[in-house]
Amino acid sequence: MHTTHTDTFAFDHLPPADQWPEFLLDAPDLRFPEAMNCAAELLDAAVARGWGERVCIRAPGGVVWTYRQLQAQADRIAHVLVHDMGLVSGNRVLLRAPNNPMLAACWFGVIKAGGIAVATMPLLRAKELGAIVGKAQVSHALCDLSLADELVQTAAAHPVLGHVRFFHGQGDPAGEAVASDRPRLEADMARHAQPFATVQTSATDICLLAFTSGTTGVPKATMHGHRDVMAACQCWPQHVLRPQADDVFAGSPPLAFTFGLGGLLLFPMSVGASTVLLEKASPPQLAEAIPAFGVTTLFTAPTSYRALAAHGEALRQSALRQCVSAGEALPMATRTQWKAATGIELIDGIGATELLHIFISADEAQVRPGATGKAVPGYVAQVQDDQGREVPPGTVGRLAVKGPTGCRYLDDERQTSYVKNGWNLTGDAYRMDADGYFFYQARTDDMIVTAGYNVASPEVEDALMLHPAVAECAVIGVADAERGQVITAFVVPKTDVVADDALVKTLQEHVKQSIAPYKYPRVVRFCDTLPRTQTGKLQRFRLHDLI
Ligand code: 3UK
User: For 195, left (φ over 0), alpha (ψ -120 to 50), or beta?
Assistant: First the structure.
């Protein structure tokens, strides 16, 4: 392996080769040329192929960009990076914006210039941004004006971040007035009208660092290259989603989360479809955007589907036809609720930042109740015991995955916990049936041991969720002298439900009737909301503080 990068930081900080997962690249559709830049594949080639006048991106306020317009913007940004900001290939560029067309243009501008995109969650503060800048030695940043303050603080504290430009994404004119003295990307872009010749990188060169959204611990930076991006476009979208060129994608995950980057930018572009980028995409805004933009293909998390189900009637009248759920386990009750509300069967898929995107999933026709799905073509998956031996079907163990993408952390000793003997270990407990369907049990650290029994938090949550009084819930094991751990449920009741002792009894009875009685929550607490990460994942560990 070699790198074409001038700045070899990423290459130099890859884990040692013997700690890499095995990469499966033998399938005919996964054989990529040695020299490849994924921006050339996804953007330049799209225009060259005659898609230039097709709509690529829409946004509120009547914004419509064709593929050619996105390319023109990305070209200007690449020129600014190289000529005005002194970028050399391999430099890391922090990207910071809510989902909007300029963020997409910046992403492609960075990649075209041979840079490494480090997209960050909009809500991060200077302290968290500082950790990212330090870890990835980020030298450049392109930032939405609406998020300028925290970045300015970060740059002041981290001299390595020497080149910063701000842009006006969309909305928030007040922010623009306040920040008008900031160095503007648009002003520089205006001076560069000529096309930018995309830098010829090697397929294995790193092009993005994605920080894990993990529910605990210090953030880790996963490293992915041009080949990994194209492999992700080749696997799950082609084999499970199978989108059409006239599809309209939309959803909630930030582009800084690889679930959003793939689902809301790379995958639609890989088939010449269009994407709707929404700066705000909570359920009410999604419910409005779906009919307004003619959205056909939706990406969001289980909680969001539960809230959106209330708009089922309106969504039935819309063009919506495919709905993808990922980020956390999809309870059976949510699948049923969504189908009843909209007539649409959800496509569940488990993905991970370490593997870039989804590796186990099932299309609408292949759904098996309670299962996430089967290994996506290109990937192999198995359930292993603690020694890394494959266990027979029906046995719960650790999920192990291999495919064309895999985990490489930037300079992180946790590499050897995620990758063992060439397998990526996702930290999830799963069971596989005889037909190769994978059934999620829990995060391995969310297994509760109570009076000698192993109980998976999500199983109790699923049972609770089937009760009509429950809007959301979370189950944890609380340390207990007698039982080891006591199953404790936090329940957000539906509006107009009376949350009293009688309801506690009712819910406990309900669980005893639905699953093995020893799994019922001995303690039930009511609350208004549950703690979640910025990617929508439940943070069960934070519930311990409420005990
Ligand atoms: C959990 C799921 C059950 C699971 C992601 C799609 O979530 C993504 O990446 P993260 O790094 O988290 C990975 C972990 O999240 N998980 C995700 N999806 C499911 N558990 N069923 C699911 N359908 O614990 C996994 O190990 O934040 C999801 C695409 C790209 C992604 N990065």
Answer: beta
CATH says 451-546 is which class? alpha beta
Task: Name the residue with the closest Cα to ligand 1, atom 21.
Answer: 329
- In short, whether 146's Cβ falls inside 6 Å of ligand 1 is no
Q: What is the pLDDT along the chain (547 residues), one digit of tens a residue?
A: 789 999 999 999 999 999 999 999 999 999 999 999 999 999 999 999 999 999 999 999 999 999 999 999 999 999 999 999 999 999 999 999 999 999 999 999 999 999 999 999 998 999 889 999 999 999 999 999 999 999 999 999 999 999 999 999 874 444 445 556 899 999 999 999 999 999 999 999 999 999 986 555 678 999 999 999 999 999 999 999 999 999 999 999 999 999 999 999 999 999 999 999 999 999 999 999 999 999 999 999 999 999 999 999 999 999 999 999 999 999 999 999 999 999 999 999 999 999 999 999 999 999 999 999 999 999 999 999 999 999 999 999 999 999 999 999 999 999 999 999 999 999 999 999 999 999 999 998 888 988 888 899 999 999 999 999 999 999 999 998 888 899 999 999 999 999 999 999 999 999 999 999 999 999 999 999 999 988 889 999 899 988 8
Q: Which among 204, 161, 169, 206 is positioned nearest to 186, based on CA atoms?
A: 169
- Supply 363's token pair: 């299309």
Establish whether residue 521 lines the binding site of ligand 1, counting it when its CB lies within 6 angstroms of any ligand atom.
no
| DSSP-derived 3-state class of residue 375 | strand
The pair of three-digit structure tokens given for residue 483, joined into one six-digit string: 């039982």
Ligand 1 close to Cβ of residue 335 (< 6 A)? no
Q: Is the CB of 488 under 6 A from ligand 1?
A: no
38 CB-side CA count, 13 A: 30
Distance 252 CA to ligand 1 centre (A): 15
Nearest CA to ligand 1 atom 25: 352
Q: Is 259 in the pocket of ligand 1 (CB under 6 A)?
A: yes
Indicate if ligand 1 lies below 6 Å from the C-beta of 91. Answer: no
pTM assigned to the model = 0.94
Ligand 1: which of 328, 417, 446 to mutate, most ligand atoms within 8 Å of CB?
328
Sign of torsion over alpha carbons 44, 46, 48, 50: negative
What residue type is assigned to position 373 of the chain?
Answer: G
Alpha-helical (H) ranges within 413-493 are 415-418, 457-465
**How far does residue 376's CA lie from ligand 1's centre (Å)?**
14
CB of 204 sitting under 6 A from ligand 1? no
